[in-house]
From TrEMBL:
It comes from Aeromicrobium marinum DSM 15272. Belongs to the NADH dehydrogenase family. Its cofactor is FAD. This is Pyridine nucleotide-disulfide oxidoreductase family protein. Residues 7-281 form the FAD/NAD(P)-binding domain. It comes from the Bacteria. SUPFAM superfamilies: FAD/NAD(P)-binding domain. Keywords: FAD, Flavoprotein, Oxidoreductase. Pfam families: Pyr_redox_2 (PF07992). One of its GO terms (molecular function) is NAD(P)H dehydrogenase (quinone) activity. One of its GO terms (biological process) is aerobic electron transport chain.
Length: 361
């Protein structure tokens, strides 16, 4: 006798869901029919600044999602989610297909946060990473040393400004930040070290600069001051994709989830990574949470199929973050502790490559 299967639909192949694909056999054994709705490839953000600035090949950070799904025996629809009917438990895909589910899990990442400024469509954004991959070709197309403005002095803006400053086809880099200081979350000593590094590479850092408009060839301040550029890059922070709020599953903070990674009003809906709003405590949008939530999600799904209590996600108080500053240098930070140098970047590459390798083959 064949037992009825529970339809599990995974939307997005972010860090958490890649873990589920590697362990799909456990889900099948627990009684699920697993389906995936996601683009054909996944780009790993740990090497995104280096690949975007041309320091590493795009392939270094790319995972073949189709291959992983095929090896796991998971039915993969290569498309994106565009609509969701939670009452009918039906997802609509970008190719017009309707996929029904009993249990849904969302791992669709983040987008650049709405910045309240007018932004010209030619402006590059740090997310999605597929768009950021256009940075190096766009710089080369300028045809002379390019003047680039990075808007936003958080982690990704700092990484990219540092990389661009050593790019052979970049003439000047401006880093524009609305707040009084760049890297506001960094320990004071690490921030000073970073400021010295940026100054030594010729990056012009402008703080207290509230941008009103990012036009095609200039950034415009509220008082009308302009800063010309060939190319602008928007790095004003990350937010959950607007689609999730549009389908009634949350707001700009993301899909609300309890410690069990379940939506409080829809226990059949789980969310992990940047698209989730972890209700017990706000989490920074960094890959480590997506990575660490993967095994918890797997245990949750297996537990619910057995009617057992669901495990909870307990975030680390201080996660190690390592900024890739280009030219072989990294800045490692954990809580108030930090160090800057080639060994920090070597450690980052080792961690990143080990993770990427484990999701290949
Ligand atoms: C330049 C840059 C560098 C960064 N460096 C680091 C770093 O070194 N370390 C770190 O911890 N964090 C870093 N981050 C943050 C990191 O990118 C995120 O925290 C992390 O990627 C979130 O993981 P995730 O699994 O939630 O989503 P993602 O890694 O974004 O994966 C989500 C996936 O869902 C897919 N998707 C999107 N929309 C849909 C849809 N509608 N339907 C189906 N699929 C969809 C996407 O194509 C993507 O493959 C960086 C961010 C940027 C912008």
């Amino acid at each position: 006798m064949t037992l009825p299967r529970t339809d599990l639909l995974l939307v997005g192949a972010g860090h958490g869901h890649l873990h589920l694909l590697r362990h799909a056999g456990e889900l099948v054994a627990a009684g699920y029919r697993v389906r995936l709705l996601a683009p054909a490839t996944f780009d790993y953000s740990g090497v995104a600044s280096a690949t975007a600035a041309g320091g590493l090949s795009v392939e270094e950070g790319r995972t073949d999602v189709c291959g992983l799904a095929a090896r796991a025996g998971v039915d993969h629809t290569v498309a994106t989610l565009v609509g969701l009917d939670t009452a009918r438990r039906t997802a609509t895909t970008s190719d017009g297909t309707e996929l029904t589910y009993d249990v849904l899990s969302l791992n669709v990442g983040s987008v650049v946060a709405p910045s309240g400024m007018t932004v010209h469509p030619s402006t590059l954004t740090v997310k999605p990473l597929s768009g950021l991959a256009d940075l190096d070709p766009r710089i080369r197309r300028v045809g002379r040393p390019a003047d680039v403005t990075v808007v936003g002095g958080g982690a990704s803006g700092l990484e990219l400004a540092a990389h661009l400053a050593v790019h052979p086809d970049v003439g000047s880099v401006h880093l524009v930040e609305a707040g009084e200081r760049i890297g506001p979350d960094l320990p004071a000593g690490a921030r000073r070290r970073l400021q010295r590094l940026l100054a030594a590479r010729g990056v012009q850092v402008l703080t207290g600069w509230q941008v009103h408009e990012v036009a095609e060839r200039a950034v415009v301040r509220a008082d009308g001051t302009t800063l010309p550029h060939d190319l602008a890059l928007l790095a004003t922070g990350l937010a959950a994709p607007g689609l999730l709020a549009d389908v009634g599953l949350g707001d700009r903070h993301g899909v609300p989830v309890r410690a069990t990674l379940q939506h409080p009003d829809h226990p059949e809906i789980h969310a992990v990574g940047d698209c989730a709003h972890f209700l017990p405590a706000p989490l920074p949008r960094i890959g480590v949470h997506g990575v660490r939530q993967g095994p918890v999600l797997l245990c949750s799904l297996v537990a619910r199929s057995r009617g057992a209590a669901l495990p909870v996600y307990e975030p680390q108080r201080h996660a190690l973050a390592i900024l890739d500053l280009g030219a072989g240098t990294g800045l490692a930070v954990r809580g108030r502790w930090w160090w800057c140098g080639t060994s920090a970047l070597r450690l980052k590459r080792w961690i990143d490559r080990r993770w990427i390798r484990s999701h290949r083959a």
